[in-house]
Design goal:
It contains 5 helices and 5 strands. With 128 residues, the protein is an alpha/beta fold. The chain has one domain: 3-Layer(aba) Sandwich (Oxidized Rhodanese, domain 1). It has a 5-stranded parallel β-sheet with strand order 1-5-4-2-3. It is globular, with a radius of gyration of 14 Å. Pfam families: Rhodanese (PF00581). InterPro entries: GlpE_sulfurtransferase, Rhodanese-like_dom, Rhodanese-like_dom_sf. One of its GO terms (molecular function) is transferase activity. Keywords: Transferase.
Length: 128
């Protein structure tokens, strides 16, 4: 694999907060997946995201999901690997997946809002 192929492949599997926000704004076929525990999701999460804890993600729990959409997994941030575990499980189940770089931490640093018990103000996608 040469450098160009490496970076093209990397962009196929990762996204950042800005690109995710723009994709949501433009109503692209994206489902944002919080791969953390239910308790963490209830405290704070990205607006319009759905909670699929990586530890419970299976063929049964994802059976009603649309495989034509792209699923973007996230967790707390770079010190957390729940998004990677979630992305791996979704990939093994036949979904197209990207991982959100920096997770919830970088989402908030970039000025985007969160929801939950400890919600933070910020920009909210108009077409979540």
């Amino acid at each position: 694999m040469n450098q160009i192929e490496f970076y093209e492949a990397k962009l196929n599997y990762e996204t950042d907060s800005w690109d995710l926000f723009e994709a949501l704004e433009n109503n692209q076929d994206i489902i944002v997946v919080d791969a953390r525990s239910k308790q963490a999701f209830e405290v704070e999460h990205i607006p319009s995201s759905v909670n699929f804890p990586h530890s419970t993600t299976s063929e049964l729990t994802t059976s009603n999901l649309d495989k034509t959409k792209t699923y973007v997994t996230y967790c707390d941030g770079i010190g957390c690997n729940a998004s990677t575990k979630g992305a791996l499980k979704f990939s093994k189940l036949g979904f197209k997946v990207k991982e959100l770089l920096g997770g919830l931490d970088w989402w908030k640093r970039d000025g985007y809002a969160t929801e939950g018990k400890k919600s933070t103000p910020g920009k909210i996608p108009s077409h979540p």
